[in-house]
Design goal:
7 strands, single chain, Collagenase (Catalytic Domain)
């Protein structure tokens, strides 16, 4: 059976680490067999600071019509706000997810884990065989509405599909679909940076991204510098500290000498 194709477009402007994020999402193509994720060679720009759901989805739908090669579903990721304080919105075969405020108020989990959570929720909502809606009470479910937005951190940490939604998914699409989506959202497939060949290891080894420590947003100069220091062995850090102390001491002695004269 052919997998359904899900295209993901990263709308500009962006403020996060694009290459490791692409790897992280494309790793899903090895984790499950329901969907084939891709990043179409298609540009999309969001110029306004805030969008209504209708306007945003109309924009994504117009892009979906011209994407080549064609995809069954199109998801756009934006850094702009979605009116109503929403994390994401979907309609028919298009969806939009915002990264707005995640770093400031909700991270950790990392931006990548948050976007994974939203992508999983949107593909479930967009599936034409399902007619699911979110629930207003927080159950730790991937389809929680999370009116209190911090609850989304709970949902991501749990990686859970509630009993009601599990039953509806199982009846409409079978046990295999349910199990594979549960596998996607529980995040165990990410693995550890200490286990060679896992997604977490490859993120660190190839892209210098530690999913356990990095937010996923572009790092400041000092964050990059700290990451470099953390990678040094203990003796290397000791020598750097000694050199800094020596420079500061020399500067202090020079200053005192100048004052003495």
């Amino acid at each position: 059976m052919m997998r359904e194709k899900v295209g993901i477009i990263l709308g500009s402007p962006t403020n996060y680490d694009i290459l490791p994020f692409r790897y992280f999402i494309l790793a899903l193509n090895q984790v499950q067999t329901i969907y084939e994720f891709s990043f179409p060679d298609q540009e999309i720009s969001f110029v306004d600071d805030e969008y209504t759901e209708e306007r945003l989805l109309d924009f994504v739908a117009s892009t979906h019509r011209v994407v080549s090669p064609t995809v069954d579903y199109l998801i756009a990721i934006t850094t702009r706000r979605i009116r109503g304080n929403l994390f994401f919105t979907s309609r028919a075969n298009v969806a939009a997810i915002t990264t707005d405020v995640w770093e400031k108020y909700f991270s950790p989990p990392s931006l990548f884990e948050y976007l994974l959570h939203c992508i999983a929720a949107t593909v479930i909502f967009m599936n034409p065989s399902l007619d699911l809606d979110s629930h207003v009470d927080t159950r730790g479910c991937v389809l929680d509405y999370t009116r209190w937005k911090h609850d989304d951190r709970i949902d991501i940490a749990l990686g859970y599909i509630c009993d009601n939604h599990s039953e509806e998914i199982q009846q409409a699409l079978g046990d295999s679909y349910l199990k594979q989506m549960q596998l996607v959202i529980d995040r165990k497939w990410i693995g550890s940076i200490s286990d060679n060949g896992t997604v977490a290891y490859n993120l660190k080894h190839f892209f210098r991204f530690d999913i356990g420590r990095d937010s996923g947003f572009n790092k400041s100069f000092w964050e990059r510098a700290k990451a470099k220091l953390d990678e040094l062995p203990g003796e290397g850090i000791k020598k750097i500290i000694e050199a800094i102390i020596a420079v500061l001491l020399a500067a202090l002695l020079l200053k005192l000498g100048l004052k003495k004269d």
